[in-house]
Amino acid sequence: MNNHSFEIAPAQVEDLNDIFSLVQDLADYEKEPEAVTTDLVEYKRCFEEGVFEAILAKKDGTTIGMALYYTTFSTWKGRMIYLEDFIVKEPFRKLGVGAMLFDRFVAISKEKDAKLVKWQVLDWNTPAVNFYHKKGATIEKNWWNGKIIF
Fold this sequence. Notes:
This protein is of the alpha+beta class. The chain has helices at residues 16-29, 40-48, 97-111, 126-134, and strands at residues 7-10, 53-59, 62-74, 78-88, 116-119.
């Protein structure tokens, strides 16, 4: 597969079913399928309110991957873009789709005048860690995640 056999484009409302499906695929891959407790109604509301954006990789009109992100703020650096979910369907991995999605995400972040981009990666996900290292990322190991689920 060459770079011209798929396209990278901003997500539209009509893509939310595909996005939600990819999020569920990612939760399965991360061994936490029960952790997805939201629904398409909330996705649609939040997307229309501009809470998050996404870019999709499509092949022949079918969504094969995505990067979902939102703008936030770092008190130390300034405007920051947080990559919430990044996934390419299994049959399309290692073909350059993920690299093109990630590179477009970084370019969008620079266009938005972000000072940094940030995301999480599971410590056992060696392929993802290696991918991010190849992209020049620093993988922090000294910060622990905190959260409260309502």
